[in-house]
Amino acid sequence: MRWFTRLRSVLNPAWYHGHGKKPPFFEGWYYKLIDHSGRHRYAIIPGVFLSQKSHAFIQVLNGRDGTATYHQFPLSDFWAAEQTFDVRIGPNQFNLEAISLDLQRPEQSLRGELHFDGLTAWPVTLTAPGIMGWYAWVPTMECYHGVLSLDHTIAGSLAIDGERVDFDQGRGYIEKDWGRSFPSAWVWMQTNHFEQPRTSLTASIAIIPWRRTAFRGFIVGFWHQGQLHRFATYTGAQVEKLLVTNETAVWVLRNKTHRLALLAHLGSEEQFGLLKGPDTVEMGKRVAESLTAEVDVELTHLGQNRVIFSGRGRYAGLEVHNAAALSP
Question: What DSSP state is assigned to residue 322?
């Protein structure tokens, strides 16, 4: 029945994949929370890390001031359902419909409930079970990725260090990663705050270990007017340009029918908070992330020579790690 267990696991990227796994292993879910005004921007990242230093954790990134807090829990405080996405870390609970937080620690106080509605998941099919396409079936990947909601509304509030933050009519995004370790280099950007509602971009490129070697792989999705435009290594798309400086990241991709041009404005270093990321030994990677970047997006239909979309996404999540290694 092991094949059936793996089948269910691959076809349900939201679920916890660590049941029966041996170290090293990590899994984390990423909730991006933006209030209606855009003044309050947070990323909440619950997860678990299995190694000689096994533990559970909840990371909190404040996108306004770039502060990041790592709350560590004993592994015994972690619980995950086997046939649905339901994760609990101490008194804190996480699933697709809501999060319930009760963090009372000297370095940070965070309490309340948020509920999500109108979730838009990356489609899952037998041949392409999520954003990773057929790579999701490969059992030896170092890191797996899932997009659980490209865009949704938020209701509820959080008391953060004594201040009540109202997230009613806010917007959110949910993704996750699991496996043995983060890649050695990557660029990641995400925004679902455009002038045209129900529009979302998620894009990442990384060095992917593969059979004693490595390759530059990428997965990009632009969701607009109910249609998901995919640009990925496994779809045969190509990178026309990738140039990262201290101020901007320029990334141009094309497939047989469309070209997608991205121009990310990174902002100042002070706007980046330092998160922790996994390697095979510990949560030792220092991952700088901003929630104040902006991304200019232009989607062009090549056959018709027509611009389908042009706009700027605000409150973008952005990570740039060892970008020089991504150069062709």
Answer: S
DSSP, res 225 = T
Q: Residue 2 in 3-state DSSP?
A: helix
Number of domains in the chain: 1
Calpha distance 30→177 (Å, rounded): 8
Q: Taking a C-beta distance cutoff of 8 angstroms, is the pair 255, 269 a contact?
A: no
pTM recorded for the entire structure:
0.97
Domain residue limits at 273: 2-326
Q: Do 87 and 75 meet the contact criterion of CB atoms below 8 Å apart?
A: no
Q: What is the pLDDT of residues 71-128, one digit of tens each?
A: 999 999 999 999 999 999 999 999 999 999 999 999 999 999 999 999 999 999 999 9
Tens-place pLDDT, residues 197-216: 999 999 999 998 887 788 99
CA 238 to each of CA 188, 250, 254, 258: distance values in angstroms, whole numbers, following the listed order: 17, 14, 5, 11
Residues near 308 by Cβ (< 8 Å), separated by ≥ 6? 224, 258, 299, 300, 301
